[in-house]
User: Fold these one by one.
Assistant:
Number 1:
Amino acid sequence: MLKYIGKRLLMLIPVLLGVTVIVFTLMYITPGDPVDALLGDSATAEAREMLREQLGLNGGYFERLFRYIGNLLHGDMGISYATKQPVFTRLLETFPNTFKLALLGVTFSVVFGLTVGTISAVKQYSIFDYVFTFICMIGNAMSSFWLGLLLLLTFCLKLRWFPASGFSSPKHWILPAFTVGFHSAANIARMTRSSMLEVIRADYITTARAKGQKELAIVIKHALKNALIPVVTTIGMQFGALIGGSVLVESIFVVPGVGKMMVDSIKSRDYPVVQGGVLAIAFFFCIVNLIVDVLYAYIDPRIKAQYK
Amino acid sequence: MTETTVVNAAPEQETYKKRGQGKEIWRRFRRSKSAMLGLFILLTLIFLAIFAGVLTPYDPTEPDVPMRLMKPFVDSAHILGTDELGRDIFTRLCYGARISLAVGLIAVSISLVGGITLGSLAGYYGGTLDNVIMRFVDILMAIPSILLNISIVAAMGQGLQNVMIAIGISSMPGYCRIMRASILSLKDQEFIEASKAAGASDFHIIVHHIIPNCLAPLIVQATLRVGGSILACASLSFIGVGIVPPTPEWGAMLSTGRDFLRDAPHLTTIPGITIMLAVLCMNFIGDGLRDALDPKLKN
């Protein structure tokens, strides 16, 4: 198992390097000179050259790319044009919030998705099944930003149950986490339902019943555990969508996270911050995928056996 | 004489067979109520998009400030109300349908063409080329699609065309993987070998023998992605990096409605429902097509 994790960690290096190159290239070809934006047209040629050097903007594409990667290895992601703070410091400030939001969102979506999916499958064609299938369909088609606005309108502005902004208490996190997780919850529920339906008619379930097992034990221990394998893949895939969704949700609920920071930075053309944000989230996403794959091996003994 | 009859007979047989297959798929598709509902919504949206100019007398971008923020279902002249500049919301939705449908269609076409090409090359030739292409796909997949969209649009500049390209590129990896997997399962089959033995070129084999055999999963994925692309475009406009105002794009409409959330919630609710319906109908059609194209569910 350790060998497997080690191998996957090694495979992560070229992917992360590739992500860095792609993101760097995209920002490199972005039109507009940041020096113009910072100094204005009236600055002298020397001042411009000095700032260019300071920001690491001198030199050709490859020179700058290698310098960027070299700096990155030292934890230096450049300096924000707008606030003059190092990007890394800003990421350290904002990332915990995004991480917390994503974690809360994924917890909600897994709990909701697994519960609803399992009940829908066990009580197939019941009222519960129809109602939740409908909700999941809606959840799948609903954009997270619209859901966020609807929740904001209903629960913060009209009913005043939740505060609309600020993040001092756990209450502040409920609506953003629900918004971020709802789409994924719907997908996980759909996947759990169809996966459970395949499993629940298997012979070993009948055997378990014939042995006189309690229904709850059959559903959880025998059926759900076997149905989980495709569900874990879905959860892993949803994580990416969820982190992406948090970019939108953060700007609705004014969560001081990486997503909001990036959206604000795009508007002010503060590209080192955008670059740093995309990289941080892509790194995080790769690590999550690795964890999902390890979990996968843990749940499925067939995969585990390959790496013993 | 005999020769000409043989030559003529072959295409006739082929069209008969193709029509038969299409009819069979349509028969199975029709059985799904949700798929038919999806088709109905889609046709309505297409109708609104095409006849937007005839259906409403208003201009989608011309402000009419005295009429601003009218509530929906109050005045029959503005059935869905007006926005913060007095523009008729129904008119803007109809014109917006043009944009959303175009984005859905063109972005998916870009990703289909790109994905099929890369996937075919990777799967058919294997080796180093496969490795290079698939690592590139892995890298693209490591960036959450909305971030990739944002970065591409930032690099190329805002606007409809660039949004389509960005969404097309970021959804390419999915098709590429499907295509590669299908090719790997097909390329050692006998009919491919037979075609090779008959002297067909690689291009001919891929286009005439392999692609038609893996169309079903690609069509399903493409239909589902149309909804995803519409949503992605709306998301980009919502955060202000997509389509530039005053273009009547649904996501942009929702975004401007945010400032009037308390007093005029219809500015966000109506475009929100429209986006949801558009995505929902594509999901219904995609699910219906998946069942209709699956030979296992034939009866």
Note: Chain B touches chain A through 41 residues (CB under 8 Å).
Number 2:
Amino acid sequence: MTARMDKRFADLAAEGRPALVTYFMAGDPDFDTSLAIMKALPSAGSDIIELGMPFSDPMADGPAIQLAGQRALKGGQTLVKTLEIARLFRQGDQNTPIVLMGYYNPIYIHGVERFLDDALAAGIDGLIVVDLPPEMDDELCIPALKKDINFIRLATPTTDDKRLPKVLENTSGFVYYVSMNGITGSALPDPTVIGGAVQRIKGHTKLPVCVGFGVKTAEHARAIGASADGVVVGTAIINQVASSLTEDGKSTGATVPGVETLVRGLAAGVRSAKLVAAE
Amino acid sequence: MNETPHLNSFKTGPDEDGRFGIFGGRFVAETLMPLILDLQAEWDKAKTDPEFQAELKHLGAHYIGRPSPLYFAERLTEHLGGAKIYFKREELNHTGSHKINNCIGQILLAKRMGKTRIIAETGAGQHGVASATVAARFGLPCVVYMGATDVERQAPNVFRMKLLGAEVKPVTAGSGTLKDAMNEALRDWVTNVDDTYYLIGTAAGPHPYPEMVRDFQSVIGIEAKQQMLEAEGRLPDLVIAAVGGGSNAIGIFHPFLDDESVKIVGVEAGGKGLEGDEHCASITAGSPGVLHGNRTYLLQDGDGQIKEGHSISAGLDYPGIGPEHSWLADIGRVEYVPIMDHEALEAFQVLTRLEGIIPALEPSHAIAEVIKRAPKMGKDEIILMNLSGRGDKDIFTVGKLLGMGL
């Protein structure tokens, strides 16, 4: 649903602060634990949730997210179960936008039309599908937009001014600016460079621009949040989950609280970004 | 490459979006899109640039040793008692397989594009060796990603790559085979977009790779056709090649696609049988899906997760296949059949003893299919098979399987 996403960004704009966008992997390390993590995110300060769909061959992700996907698949996670996590979450939360993030093949195998209907029924608001560039818009982007589901595109440092209009053409909800060339979980580049890149994108679109790849601490979140409409945190959360597990990969009493504590800190970071921006 | 396509030609693909029917395409992360478009622009220019073609031809003749011979396998023919069997001797190329044809072409492109670092993925190590070879020849640093399982079973090739100055990075993710090596190479490319050229070894991946690799490998079929006309005064009745990703196969098939009298068969790795998961027969036992930049037949489960696959031959151990093969299978122009591990191993020995040629385990699959088909064909019929690589790299694997110590 596009309305929920638009309302969330409008409310945050009124509040004068950037969004905290949190990514975690559905089914990592098991269905129940990841559902509990998702339910804990909004009260810990997450404004938008990216729900990772595990895939056996995550070509654009680093080792942390790859391992999380492997743990989830080993635990029996499937696309159908990921949608079920969203549906159960949505029963108790009507306001937090959910974006499904992953790779195309599981969606293609599920069937595009059936997937979109199931996603809408589960309360999904947007999709980020890493391996579908604008050249492939007929596959999923256009059908999703027709059903009122946001299709959120990644822009990268290699997306130059010539290419940006093509990337932005069918993008909705927000633009996800990947702050570096590389895989998820790499080091964070200079915030002033990122600020310039965000301004460049904003010269081409009215959509909110969220920045991700490399954000790990509250300080990062504050620094990035000063120049962007949102800060995406993924690998740090995945690492937090991983560090709480037993040696054979089972969740512990520390798994959900660990994520909550981390997200609370990051939320404080984006909230202090408001002060910087206002100065 | 220079022939005028017929009205109803099988050789017109891909379209401008890189599609062969529903197969192919450009399913890559946004970071890679500008790189792929740059590559395509450079490739489009190079294709028609006489200087590029001349350099390719010169290196082909003096560095690779082209044309490779067309060889009448007299004793195998007698032994099987049916069709006349000819081999296109790609195993005699520099570095011991067809892989070098593509590597020379792509490194010339990399040079034109001003790239200063080469990365490659490899399964059996043949493409890794060929990549390391051309990188050495052109003075560029080269990193080869290779599954940890393959590093172990293809030790001689790992050593060759290191001697050639390449850095071999073992990949432990997944089952540590070609698919995982390709994931890792793509990650490297996404990270090092400015200076790095990704030298893909098979006719798969995002457009323009399937088309480009096919065109560089088509020299095999173009030569073979000419040589066959000289030797026999006519075209073969049957063309056979082994298919993993499918570059040697598309290389020999493509020039024959519009010759209606020529039957074409691709041989997939049937592994330990198609009933379980221990095979790599993507077309025979898989279904269409999206992986590594293209839509093609894949081994996958009902949730769209990619399976690992298995083959005795590291070079065929890949759960996908080039998109043009998927299309050729769907329209019925090429027939794809599986050959089991044990049949390939048997064929390996037959050829070694009868012809004094030690084949790689990859073309041993094609030989096994020849052994099945030749006796059922008339003595006036002709089979052309692509003997795509030599077996030196496989002697340790074969020794182990035959219970012979080395």
Note: The first strand of chain A starts at residue 19 and ends at 25.
Number 3:
Amino acid sequence: MRTSRRLLILLPYLWLGLFFLVPFLIVIKIALSDSVTASPPYAPTFSLDEGLAGLRASLAALDFENFVWLAEDGIYLKAYLNSVKVAAIATLLTLLIGYPVAYAMAKAPQDWRKTLLLLVILPFWTSFLIRIYAWIGILKNEGFLNLTLMKLAIIEQPLAIMHTEIAVYVGIVYSYLPFMILPLYASLERTDGRLLEAAEDLGCGALAAFRQITLPLSLPGVVAGCFLVFIPAIGEFVIPDLLGGSGTLMIGKTLWLEFFSNRDWGVAAAVAIVLLTILIVPIVLFQRHQQKHQEELG
Amino acid sequence: MKSKLTTSLLAGTAAIWGAAAAAEGELVIYNWSDYLDPAIIEAFEAETGIDVTYDTYDSNAMLETKVLAGSSGYDIIVPSSTGTARLISAGVLQKIDKSKIPNLQHLWPKIAGLIETFDPGNEYLVPYNWWTFGIAYNTGKLADRLGADHPKSWDLLFDPEISGKLADCSVMIVDSPIDVISAALINMGHDPNTSDKDQITAAGAHIGAIRDNIAQISTDAMIGALSDGDACLGLTWSGDAYWAADGAKEADNGVNLEYIIPEEGTLLDFDGLAILADAKNVDEAHAFLNYLLQPSVSAQNANFIRYGSANLTAQAEIDPELTSNPAVYPTEATMEMLTTPVLQDRKTERLYTRTWSKVRTGQ
Amino acid sequence: MNFLDPASAASARAEPATPQAPARPPLIRFENVTKTFGSFTAISDLNLDIQEREFFSLLGPSGCGKTTMMRLLAGFEEVTSGRILLDGQDLTGTPANRRPINMMFQSYALFPHMSVAKNIGFGLKQERWKKRDLQDRVDEMLALVQLEGFADRKPHQLSGGQMQRVALARSLAKKPKVLLLDEPLGALDKKLREETQFQLMDVQDRLGLTFIIVTHDQDEAMTVSSRIAVMKAGKLLQTDTPARIYEHPASSYVADFIGNVNLINVELSGMEGDLALARWDGGTRLAIRPQPEDVMTPGARKTLVLRPEKIHVTKDRPAEAHNVNMVEGTVEEISYTGSASTFLVRLDGGMLIRAQEANRLLTSRREVDWNDRVWLSWRAGACVLVDA
């Protein structure tokens, strides 16, 4: 009985070790390697052919050169900062759009809510890539949006949205909106309607009640939603690559360029590790927030 | 029901496995998209009984990353330009057994000679196609803005005054660091293959000076933008320029495109067919290369993909519209001014891509 | 005055304005109020006056409309027709946040993200009280409910009883004219509930406010109220003091709803002096002292309301008297509840009567036992007649 329970506890750790820790160690190892023109394109490669001495020599060849390079070249810092900026603005936009949606859903009649929830989740049933390509069709110069606006004689020249940072925001906000709406909806729906009545009873107007009761009580949802959008948005590659222009400098794209264009797996791995390190801060904050919230409920 | 599902899943897995593991009588080709007439594969399969699996990529980077990672499962690949040299030095290609490909005799010695910079003795590569990097433009829109006797040089882009006049009708360049920086170097009077740090940095600044006149930096959007008339000038490869002109002609939208090799000269580039060192179907790969080099097959393929063919004997059978087009087959005199790129060391290569990143993002 | 002293609380109850003498205009008046939800009528043409300083209970089973009455008063619902007056002013159209009426919600509805002090001061903050004054009032309220020192706690750190007191303090902080209490003690255990009842009465007395309580618990209503309105299906069945509701119910429904009761169908046969005579099951003759308002028509069918504790259970036949009723039966069941024992007695006619005797003796000395033949007797003035 005890053994089987221990095994059960061991399982998640085993999973984490096998599919996170081991790959991560490999990435760290590549980050400490030099890139070479060979297959695989980095050196040294660990091999047991030359015995322990060979292994030791391989270890000795590892260094932090790639990280030094990241620090020396300003473009990486710019890319990181720009990614944080883009992710932060996109998160804010997602919150501004997602909150009213979640609020309306939580206030909708009980028997509508399931349908509305389904509608929010529905886009996930199609491939992410296809949805982003659909946005290309909508946003491009001769795309659906511009054609409609021109036909309605609202604009004369097509709006240049495609290949701009605006398109990147549209893409991120669209793609991550459900991650914002779902936790917001969960916390808004949980809010006891009698609290609002109590506030009203004590002299509160509707707006004041929203500000003093609904909003603070939905903060856990706001925080959860923001993290769920912000964390993946920082490393986002596909959206800036497909919708963004050549001027959109984001760390995901920079990583891609290092890996594919420069074939520099070492630097690419170093970029990835720094990205992960940057993400650890908000992730830990998020975890702590969730834990605190749990305790307060319990 | 469950067992049925499992069976079909197993079958599916087996199919994927089969494609990657390629047993005898099979051949796996990894090529640029739209870069081989599918009818040729069908004919080859019918004639030899070899089962061909055909897979495509759309960037050299994708090909190299996949191949360098190892165990790709492919037999034949089509690397381009300096990428060929990189793959040779990485040791992922195998030497071609020339005794198995008698049709090598049909190759154009001049093109084969150019390739020797990367592959001395043509040991690893069978030359496939070749092209130039130049300027495609909308003749009507350029005449409107610059007059009929406008220069036919790189100044069209790199002279801020000239490209400034074109900014309103959209100037585009492809997202390709080596090609564009080399063009800038040529325009500045430098060796396009320079590894001099200052010259490369200066070339970056040279492009930076006209960065505001460039509406878009994109490879994918080039052909469409040119043929739709959305862009009036584009720095691109001769093959893409040809496709854009063809598209405009087909759409009959009044867009007339012309491709020029700028008078200062430009890069002549090429790609080659190669067999991977870890290929499982070496004999079949040789058989395919020999098949493809038959003059009639090469001509059929050239007519399909509209690129300059490296098969000299085939020229007679290629569509005269192509062979007489100086954008596809430059004159002897022009050929003299063309330079083939060289493989730079990693540091210089990185300098190129870094310079390019700065140009691209407007930093 | 001791906060939880039943004696002082009881005195609080003796004081309210007597409903029989409405010298002043009522504080609250329901005037032909009807409230419908779709096809469902929650309140039907209802009239009710509530005086200042009353502790008024709305009592009834769930769905009787008592909660709707409260929500109409608070302003969470609007009347369908009729009107509600507060101090002579029509409340129609005044939103909940503008009514000088506060409510203590069922299970309290405390704001979970605010401290006790913030909760209590919430209503004052909405009126933009000065920080100093607000602080003073909050302290005063904390003292009132004996929660000094709890100001900075969050609701989830409080016990059920403490939360109840915070809720009370919050709803009293604005010194409303009327305090509505929706099942205020429903979430507390029995002992705490009894203590808190006295606390509520004490607070009401001290602040001199009008309390209106909604409850389904008749004991609670009996204990705290100056008057009780018994409701059923959107109508008021009887509005009266607890004692009159208990002893002089207006209908068999009210009688049955409040406490245990024996309901006996009788037929009036005539008068004998100041006593009415009735026949039970066509046989047994009963004497009943009628109420002044009772109309005694011979031959009319009435229901006799007889509370179990008014009945004596004896083994021997009691002495005959013109004002004593007696019947004989067999003890079928005895249930012991500590202070009293309840006897279920099967009469020879087949009817089951519930009688209750205080346990003046130890159980071992009890005379009456299972299956004993016993006499049940009660005085003519110990029962009332209601319409059948």
Note: Chain A is about 75% helix and 0% strand.
